[in-house]
C-alpha cells in the first residue's frame, strides 16, 4: 500500500433492538440456560418441600380426619387429600414465586448484576422485567406439572380438572410474583425487608387462605384477611377446577382479582426496572 493511500475501513453497525416479544424470549432463554445446568439447586424448594406437605397433611393428617364422622361434609363430600391437593398446588407456586422475586431480583441489580449486563444490550428495562416474570411463570408451570404427577400418584387427583388447577396455580403465583418483584426492585439495601415479607405476609397467607381448612372455620374478624389474600382466590379457583364447584360469578371475581394484581404488579415492575436500568 502506497504512502498516503487511504486505508479502507469497515463500518460496524450497531445491533438492532429486538422486537418486544423477541426481547422477552431472549430474557427467558437466558434464565432457562442457567436453570438447565443448576435445576438441582432448586429441586428441594420447588418439588420436595410441597411433596412433604402432601405426605404430612394429605396422607398423615387426612387419615385422622377420615375417622371422624361427618368429616367429609366440610370438604364438599370428597376425601381430605383430594380437597387439599389443589390448594397445595396453589400454595407451592405462591411460595416459589415469593422466593424467586426477592433475593434473586435484588441480586440482579446489586450482587451478580445480571440485569445490568442485559441492559448493556439493546434490551429495554421493560423487556427485562417482563421476561423475568414470564420465566418465573414458565418455571412454575414446569415444577407444578411435576408436582401434579406426584399428586396423582398418591391419589389426590379425582378428575382431569386438576389440569385446570395447574393453570389457576400458575396465575396465582404470577399475581404474587409481580408485586413482589416491584417491591424487590425498589430496594437499595441488603434485603433485610424480605424477612418481614416472608414472616408477616407469605406465612400468614399460607395458613389463613383456606389451604388446610375452610375459611368458614376461622373467626369472623379474621375472614376478611383471608378474602384479600391472592392465595385464597387461587385456592378457590384451583378447587373449582379440580372438584367442579363454584359459581360462574365467584370464579369471574377470583379471576378478576388475580388479573388486576398481576397487571398492577407488572406495571410497577416495568417502571422501576426502567428507572433503575436507565443509562
Automatic annotation (TrEMBL):
<feature type="transmembrane region" description="Helical">
    <location>
        <begin position="255"/>
        <end position="274"/>
    </location>
</feature>
<dbReference type="InterPro" id="IPR000412">
    <property type="entry name" value="ABC_2_transport"/>
</dbReference>
<dbReference type="InterPro" id="IPR013525">
    <property type="entry name" value="ABC2_TM"/>
</dbReference>
<keyword id="KW-1003">Cell membrane</keyword>
<feature type="transmembrane region" description="Helical">
    <location>
        <begin position="166"/>
        <end position="185"/>
    </location>
</feature>
<keyword id="KW-0046">Antibiotic resistance</keyword>
<comment type="similarity">
    <text>Belongs to the ABC-2 integral membrane protein family.</text>
</comment>
<keyword id="KW-0812">Transmembrane</keyword>
<feature type="transmembrane region" description="Helical">
    <location>
        <begin position="114"/>
        <end position="135"/>
    </location>
</feature>
<keyword id="KW-0472">Membrane</keyword>
<keyword id="KW-1133">Transmembrane helix</keyword>
<feature type="transmembrane region" description="Helical">
    <location>
        <begin position="197"/>
        <end position="222"/>
    </location>
</feature>
<feature type="domain" description="ABC transmembrane type-2">
    <location>
        <begin position="41"/>
        <end position="276"/>
    </location>
</feature>
<dbReference type="InterPro" id="IPR051784">
    <property type="entry name" value="Nod_factor_ABC_transporter"/>
</dbReference>
<dbReference type="Pfam" id="PF01061">
    <property type="entry name" value="ABC2_membrane"/>
</dbReference>
<feature type="transmembrane region" description="Helical">
    <location>
        <begin position="142"/>
        <end position="160"/>
    </location>
</feature>
<feature type="transmembrane region" description="Helical">
    <location>
        <begin position="47"/>
        <end position="66"/>
    </location>
</feature>
<keyword id="KW-0813">Transport</keyword>
<protein>
    <recommendedName>
        <fullName>Transport permease protein</fullName>
    </recommendedName>
</protein>
<dbReference type="InterPro" id="IPR047817">
    <property type="entry name" value="ABC2_TM_bact-type"/>
</dbReference>
<feature type="transmembrane region" description="Helical">
    <location>
        <begin position="78"/>
        <end position="99"/>
    </location>
</feature>
Amino acid at each position: 500500500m502506497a504512502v498516503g493511500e487511504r486505508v479502507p475501513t469497515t463500518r460496524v453497525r450497531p445491533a438492532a433492538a429486538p422486537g418486544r416479544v423477541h426481547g422477552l424470549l431472549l430474557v427467558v432463554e437466558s434464565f432457562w440456560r442457567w436453570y438447565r445446568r443448576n435445576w438441582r439447586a432448586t429441586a428441594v424448594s420447588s418439588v420436595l418441600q410441597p411433596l412433604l406437605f402432601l405426605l404430612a397433611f394429605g396422607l398423615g393428617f387426612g387419615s385422622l380426619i377420615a375417622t371422624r364422622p361427618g368429616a367429609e361434609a366440610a370438604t364438599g363430600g370428597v376425601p381430605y387429600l383430594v380437597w387439599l391437593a389443589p390448594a397445595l398446588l396453589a400454595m407451592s407456586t405462591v411460595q416459589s414465586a415469593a422466593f424467586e422475586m426477592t433475593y434473586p431480583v435484588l441480586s440482579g441489580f446489586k450482587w451478580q448484576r445480571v440485569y445490568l449486563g442485559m441492559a448493556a444490550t439493546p434490551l429495554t428495562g421493560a423487556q427485562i422485567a417482563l421476561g423475568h416474570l414470564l420465566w418465573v411463570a414458565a418455571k412454575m408451570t414446569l415444577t407444578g406439572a411435576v408436582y401434579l404427577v406426584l399428586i396423582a400418584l398418591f391419589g389426590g387427583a379425582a378428575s382431569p380438572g386438576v389440569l385446570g388447577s395447574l393453570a389457576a396455580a400458575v396465575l396465582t403465583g404470577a399475581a404474587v410474583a409481580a408485586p413482589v418483584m416491584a417491591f424487590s426492585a425498589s430496594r437499595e439495601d441488603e434485603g433485610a425487608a424480605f424477612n418481614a415479607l416472608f414472616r408477616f405476609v407469605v406465612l400468614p397467607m399460607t395458613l389463613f387462605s383456606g389451604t388446610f381448612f375452610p375459611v368458614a372455620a376461622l373467626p369472623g374478624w379474621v375472614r376478611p384477611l383471608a378474602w384479600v389474600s391472592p392465595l385464597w382466590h387461587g385456592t378457590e379457583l384451583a378447587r373449582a377446577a379440580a372438584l367442579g364447584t363454584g359459581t360462574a360469578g365467584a370464579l369471574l371475581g377470583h379471576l378478576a382479582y388475580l388479573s388486576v394484581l398481576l397487571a398492577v404488579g407488572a406495571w410497577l415492575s416495568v417502571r422501576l426496572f426502567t428507572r433503575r436500568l436507565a443509562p
